[in-house]
Amino acid sequence: MKSNTLKDLSSKEPFHAGLTKKLVLAKDGKRITNEAVLLTGELLRIFVRTLHQKAAVEAECEKESCIDESVSAGDAVVIQPHHITKVAAEQLMDYC
Questions:
Q1: Do residues 52 and 92 lie in contact, with contact meaning Cβ atoms separated by under 8 Å?
Q2: Prediction pTM value
Q3: CATH of domain 4-94
Q4: C-alpha span between 21 and 30 (Å, rounded)
Q5: 45-53 contacts at long range (C-beta below 8 A, 24 or more positions apart)
Q6: Could you tell me the residue ranges of all domains in the chain?
Q7: To 10 degrees, the CA torsion angle through 13, 19, 25, 31?
Q8: pLDDT of 13-49, one tens digit each?
């Protein structure tokens, strides 16, 4: 199940600092230190990676329970938006 996307997500490449800053400071134009931007970026990276992994498990379970004969066992697992929706609430609760 190791895809290129999963390999990319498992790298230690942090979120882009500018994007992280925009996500955090979407309101009120407050200031944030560079260290806080790096830490927030790392938390976002871990959050997205974990969400991706949980959605992949959900997609795999759905594929295994599928009785459609047109889907063979060797087909790749494709994560669809509904897989993310199923695991998103649990993922958010894990980080509260």
A1: no
A2: 0.68
A3: 1.10.20
A4: 10
A5: 45/13, 45/14, 45/15, 47/91, 47/95, 48/9, 49/9, 49/10, 50/91, 50/94, 51/84, 51/87, 51/88, 51/91, 52/5, 52/6, 52/9, 52/79, 53/6
A6: 4-94
A7: 70
A8: 777 888 888 888 866 767 888 888 888 889 889 988 9
